[in-house]
């Protein structure tokens, strides 16, 4: 279980949000919505512990993530709005490297299967990532979800640059994760096509 307790966030002299309280149970998805500048990405970064809140705390299984540190990081998969892929590495090399760092599954056959699951044919698996389109680069980043062994997924605009077919594939993968008892927080401008009983929404007004 993930909890945000009385979270507040400032950017410079501007308050983005204050006193945010929300609980995400296993098997559920929290979508974070709001206008640009409302603090959606900052909220997600606070959940990852990459950004400290002005006030409040984030709890994982009832414990403050600032005390858990590496124990907490070992439980999450974070994909930011930037793809986080290295231009000079191939898609296979990128996934092998990231999976090795995060403790995910990372054999070459599993990595290739993950890339094929997001619609990237083997002809591009060995090309430098810099020659791929933005949509293909986004799919390389999202292929990490097919390798993830972590219960908590924190995703910032995962559907950006994806076509309808790829969006459906990622949505199905998130649904499978929830069915397996995982939980997810997704910052998005789009509606997520999942049953309403597994989704809750947090709107940040800035």
Provide a descriptive summary of the structure in words:
This protein has 206 residues and is of the alpha/beta class. It contains eight helices and nine strands. Strands 6-7-8-3-9 form a five-stranded parallel sheet, with helices on both faces. It has a four-stranded antiparallel sheet with strand order 2-1-4-5. The mean pLDDT is 93.
Radius of gyration: 17 Å
**How many strand units?**
9
Percent of residues in helices comes to 25-40%
Beta-strand share of residues? 25-35%
For the sheet with most strands, the description reads: 5 strands, parallel
Order of helices and strands: EEEHEEHHEHHHHEHEE
How would you sum up this structure in a few lines?
The chain is built from eight helices and nine strands. By secondary structure, it is of the alpha/beta class.
């Amino acid at each position: 279980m993930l909890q945000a307790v009385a979270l507040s966030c400032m950017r410079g002299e501007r308050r983005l949000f204050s006193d945010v309280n929300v609980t995400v149970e296993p098997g559920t998805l929290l979508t974070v919505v709001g206008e640009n500048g409302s603090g959606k990405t900052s909220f997600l970064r606070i959940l990852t512990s990459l950004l400290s809140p002005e006030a409040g705390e984030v709890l994982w299984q009832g414990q403050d993530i600032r005390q858990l540190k590496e124990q907490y990081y070992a439980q999450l998969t974070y994909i930011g709005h930037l793809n986080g892929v290295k231009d000079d590495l191939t898609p296979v090399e990128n996934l092998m490297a990231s999976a090795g760092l995060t403790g995910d599954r990372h054999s070459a056959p599993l990595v290739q299967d993950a890339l094929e699951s997001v619609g990237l044919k083997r002809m591009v698996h060995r090309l430098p990532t810099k020659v791929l389109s933005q949509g293909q680069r986004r799919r390389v980043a999202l292929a990490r979800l097919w390798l993830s062994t972590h219960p908590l997924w924190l995703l910032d605009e995962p559907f950006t640059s994806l076509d309808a077919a790829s969006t459906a594939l990622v949505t199905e993968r998130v649904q499978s994760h929830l069915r397996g008892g995982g939980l997810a927080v997704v910052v998005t401008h789009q509606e997520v096509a999942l049953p309403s009983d597994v989704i809750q929404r947090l709107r940040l007004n800035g």
